[in-house]
């Protein structure tokens, strides 16, 4: 007799909704590391588990539901969280909801839980609006194994005693009584890489400008969980206990996983998932030293802040194969930055950019147009700053009121228009609807962003720099990227 599967994790597919035409070849396809971690934890506790990455497989919600119904697990966990937490959770909710509704139609007896950043931000609304039996608020490492034990035992155990669990009983929503305790990252097993379709993942195009045709294999590794800062546009704290904080994974564990990925999957391209990798100098140095000792020849990118790095860290990171650092500059205006609790001095930017370039590390400049105090002048100032520095790549985002962030709370209180569909929170969808500012409409912000993107990447000075550093083939790639028109409903 075949034993019934205990848990099936689903990463819902939403590439075309989230990225539009960019989904075909330009966007990265990142492994759902949170789903892989939960799978590893559940398996370690003796449960049987499988994982469907519908995003990587490019499966429709209907087809995904069919595959889930075929497996008929005790519990299906629809994990609404990608490898860029803020930007990849809420936009996935449309596809997640479609999977859950289709599954209820095909297998009404099926039990479904939603977990991830968006469900943690809006647990009651998720339970009310989606075809979910449960919602997990928090990381899920304690909540989901406990729920499985109860479901499998058919006991009358009080579900309200499971930390982090929301559920409905007789059409009444029972709120979570207590947060699940946060984990020590070193207590977690390694991500269940064997359950993931590793041949499907690919790095972002810019990550491989030095070898544009070698974007695979690709993996994501975390070295810490959480963030000690509290920027008002970010919602990352919603999946933890709602407060700023950071927990570190030991350098030895980090490099043990890198070693596994290199030896078993020939991975060279790696993203450090951390909200902020370059924060603790001793730790960064130790991780880098271990990577250098391993002789892996990696191509890594990670997040940093201009006020947390120094010259020694940068040199060591480059030696370890950290070839790209993403700095969140957000805005050239100190007033606009202060308005979202992002504080650093302008002279620090110039100094750190120069240090990073001297170390041989490429820079991804991250900027946000449409923050609450933005007007045409400050947005133009931000674009001019990016062009003056002439970074190897930039991400121009529009300000989104992601559920779980302070911007979202403010927008709801003030009655600001928000996207009607969850995938309207994507940066590249046709339905994208950013926040309006004190001075600009959402349409004006979005229009400026799309024009800024073209202006930056078609700038002759930028293309000349790219040709010098990476060659004509990458210039052709960028020129091809500019031919992809992003359809916008609200412009």
Characterize the structure shown.
- The chain has 491 residues and is α/β, with parallel strands linked by helices.
- It folds into two domains: 7-174, Rossmann fold, CATH 3.40.50.280; 202-399 and 434-481, TIM Barrel (Alpha-Beta Barrel).
- 39% of the residues lie in helices and 16% in strands.
- It has 19 helices and 15 strands.
- It has helices at 15-19, 33-44, 54-57, 61-71, 85-89, 93-106, 117-121, 123-129, 143-153, 251-265, 281-294, 311-319, 334-338, 346-358, 376-389, 406-414, 442-457, 460-470, 472-481, and strands spanning 7-11, 49-53, 75-80, 112-116, 134-136, 165-169, 172-174, 218-221, 224-227, 245-248, 269-272, 299-304, 322-330, 362-369, 393-398.
- The strands form three sheets. It has a seven-stranded mixed sheet, sandwiched between helices. Strands 8-11-12-13-14-15 form a six-stranded parallel sheet. It has a two-stranded antiparallel ribbon with strand order 9-10.
- α15 links the parallel β14 and β15.
- α10 packs parallel to α11 (281-294).
- The longest helix is centred in the last third of the chain and has 16 residues, at 442-457.
- The N and C termini lie far apart (58 Å).
């Amino acid at each position: 007799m075949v034993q019934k599967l205990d848990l099936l994790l689903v990463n819902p597919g939403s590439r075309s909704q989230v990225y539009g035409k960019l989904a075909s070849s330009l966007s990265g396809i990142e492994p759902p590391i949170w789903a892989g971690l939960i799978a590893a934890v559940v398996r370690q506790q003796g449960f049987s588990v499988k994982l469907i990455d519908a995003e990587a497989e490019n499966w429709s919600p209907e087809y995904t539901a069919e595959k889930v119904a075929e497996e008929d697990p005790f519990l299906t966990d629809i994990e609404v969280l990608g490898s860029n937490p803020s930007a990849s959770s809420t936009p996935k909710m449309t596809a997640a909801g479609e999977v859950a509704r289709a599954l209820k139609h095909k297998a009404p007896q099926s039990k479904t839980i939603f977990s991830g950043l968006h469900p943690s931000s809006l647990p009651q609304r998720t339970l009310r609006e989606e075809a979910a039996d449960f919602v997990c608020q928090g990381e899920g490492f304690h909540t989901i194994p406990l729920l499985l034990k109860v479901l499998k035992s058919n006991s009358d155990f009080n579900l309200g005693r499971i930390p982090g669990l929301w559920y409905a009983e007789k059409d009444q929503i029972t709120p979570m009584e207590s947060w699940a305790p946060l984990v020590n990252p070193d207590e977690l097993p390694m991500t269940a890489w064997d359950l993931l379709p590793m041949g499907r993942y690919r790095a972002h195009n810019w990550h491989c400008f030095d070898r544009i045709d070698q974007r695979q294999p690709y993996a994501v590794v975390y070295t810490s969980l959480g963030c000690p800062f509290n920027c008002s546009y970010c919602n990352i704290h919603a999946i933890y206990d709602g407060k700023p904080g950071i927990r570190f994974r030991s350098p030895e564990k980090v490099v043990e996983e890198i070693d596994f990925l290199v030896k078993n999957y020939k991975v060279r391209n790696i993203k450090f998932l951390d909200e902020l990798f370059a924060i603790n100098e001793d730790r960064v140095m130790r991780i880098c030293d271990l990577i250098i000792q391993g002789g892996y020849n990696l191509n890594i990118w990670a997040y940093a802040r201009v006020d947390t790095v120094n010259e020694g860290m940068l040199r060591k990171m480059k030696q370890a194969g950290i070839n790209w650092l993403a700095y969140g500059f957000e805005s050239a205006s100190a007033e606009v930055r202060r308005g979202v609790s992002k504080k650093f001095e302008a002279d620090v930017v110039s100094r750190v950019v120069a240090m990073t370039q001297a170390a041989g590390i490429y820079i991804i400049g991250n900027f946000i147009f449409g923050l609450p105090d933005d007007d045409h002048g400050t947005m133009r100032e931000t674009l001019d700053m990016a062009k003056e520095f002439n970074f190897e790549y930039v991400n121009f985002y529009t300000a989104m009121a992601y559920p779980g962030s302070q911007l979202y709370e403010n927008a709801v209180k003030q009655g600001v228009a928000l996207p009607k569909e969850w995938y309207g929170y994507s940066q590249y969808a046709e339905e994208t609807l950013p926040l309006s500012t004190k001075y600009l409409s959402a349409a004006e912000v979005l229009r400026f962003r799309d024009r800024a993107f073209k202006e930056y990447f078609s700038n002759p000075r930028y293309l000349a720099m790219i040709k010098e550093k990476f060659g004509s083939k990458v210039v052709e790639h960028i020129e091809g990227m500019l031919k992809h028109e992003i359809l916008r409903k609200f412009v």
